[in-house]
Amino acid sequence: MLYWEHEYPDYGVVHHLMVLCYYLQHPHLYSPDGLRAATQLLADFVAYGMTPQAIRRRDGERVDSSRRTFKIRGTTAAHGTYTQPVTWPMTAADVVAAGVDRYCESVRQWAQSVYDVLVESGNLAQSR
Known about the structure:
Blueprint (H helix, E strand, L loop, with lengths): L1 H6 L7 H10 L7 H15 L5 H12 L28 H7 L4 H18 L8
Helix pairs in contact: 2-3, 2-6, 3-6, 5-6
């Protein structure tokens, strides 16, 4: 997928969703606080239609590595887990299988799928 984004720069429009979905489906890559922040970030993008630019304006200072008070990356000792079991109906493999011509559409579908599963499983409370 990164190759496709490199070869077709316009595909970078969904890069934020691609990275977020991959990491959310591998929660151990996040710290517990990082996972909470990432799930809310997905909701901001998918449910509330926020753009990466709007998120940067809103959260830039809070997540700046020189000011951030929490770790994003998980460690062996402290990593993210979901409180309820999760079964993913769509993964990165499905995005790739759909092909390069459907990449942006597939990543958006993947993001919606991840969001829906997290809400339905009780791992993401709907707020706002």
